[in-house]
Amino acid sequence: MANLAGSYHTELQDAGCDTAHTPVECKANTQSVLNAVPASQKLPPDSFPSLATPVRLSEVECTLFTAKSGTATGLDGLPYELWKKLNDHHQKATKLGTGEPTFDVITMLTTVFNDIQTYGLLPDSTFSQGWMCPIYKKNDKTEIANYHPITLLNTDYKIFTKVLALQLTAAVPQMIHTDQAGFIPGRSIFDQTCLAKAMISYAEAMDENGAIVTLNQKKAYDKIDHTYLWCTLTTFNLPDLFICTICSLYKTAFTQVAVNGCFSTPYHVTRGVRQGDPLSCLLFDLAIEPLACLLCNSPKLSGYSISGAPHPVLVSLFADDTALYLSSTDHYDDVLEILDSWCHTSGMKFNINKTEIVPIGSLAHHDQVRMTWCIHINDRHVLNPGMNVANEGHPIHYLSLWMGNKVDDANTWSLILDKVRTAIAH
User: Fold this and answer.
1) Under a CB-based contact definition with an 8 Å cutoff, are residues 30 and 345 in contact?
2) pTM value?
3) 289-329: per-residue pLDDT in tens?
4) Residue 212, beta-bridge partner list
5) Would the pLDDT of 42 be above 80?
6) Pairing mode, if any, of strands 210-215 and 356-360?
7) Most C-beta atoms within 10 A of its C-beta, which of 99, 111, 169, 294?
8) Cα–Cα distance measured from residue 394 to residue 407, given in angstroms and rounded to the nearest whole number
9) Contact of 240 with 396, CB cutoff 8 Å
């Protein structure tokens, strides 16, 4: 079973790779996509010096102090409690002043991390190795695709990448537009859910026809092409030291899948970011930001211009969960061209069967979209039959929100409560 699961994830590493274009063509396609990132979102030189310097003792100590105890360990079996105990022992011995040498674990870890930043990891290093714990989501339990691929990494690795993540967190708000709310300080999932509800009400009140399109990506965190990711980090002007460090960590990244105490053969992580790594969420935000830039900067898409708003409402994201706000002048065909271009370059893929559409504006427009299966009457192609176009009174699920036209919030919770009561009764 473990090897079957391992084979599935090994195949994911190669699935969808671009073999139809030469390296020169792939590089040109990548640059074309990354050219959409405006200069205002690129870091000025020397603006965040911590990203360009080796990690410090104080950063490692603070990260260890705040690390959550009682969590599962990586393959080496060493918990955070071990590092904390060693540090406590050193601190107490130093205060007593006996003069006896003690093991300074913070200095040791910092020295190791600095060495990795300076020289990289050796090819046979196990520092970046992890084991995957598949956690069931829903649907057929016999399909490994229906399990979250959570990777458990060694605690010393996670201390290091948490330090890097904290350094990156300070710079991310400058690089990521406010359209993206995922894992960024000062931004919330409720920004996006409140926007969705407000836009339904706004379009109805102002009689501005359009549609909200929610997009879902297939295995989002597992499919990012690493070459594209490194180029994206370079485009945002992140320092070479920071980029090279991350490249080195992934160059020796191997994962084993664990099922019922048995481990699969290790596979090399050649694409995607690992769920369970403190850095992964921010790396994914940066990877998807060029898509948001392509959409927002497209001369063919206008979104909704609202008085007092700093920019048109066209796209909102929470990590990979994307919502598009298409106005009466926007064609879904133009959206597809942009999505295809970005997916082709990044290695990502959207799940058409999980795309959901809420027509907004007048009731006549709602009916027209459902009858013609076109958001805009002049669209060249009808919507894919696998998509869900919401009916009146029938909500769709976006992030933590049930939303739609003429949807009673109380009724949506009543259905959920009924399911809970039924489950408890049985």
Assistant:
1) yes
2) 0.94
3) 999 999 999 999 999 999 999 999 999 999 999 999 999 99
4) 325, 358
5) yes
6) antiparallel
7) 294
8) 6
9) no
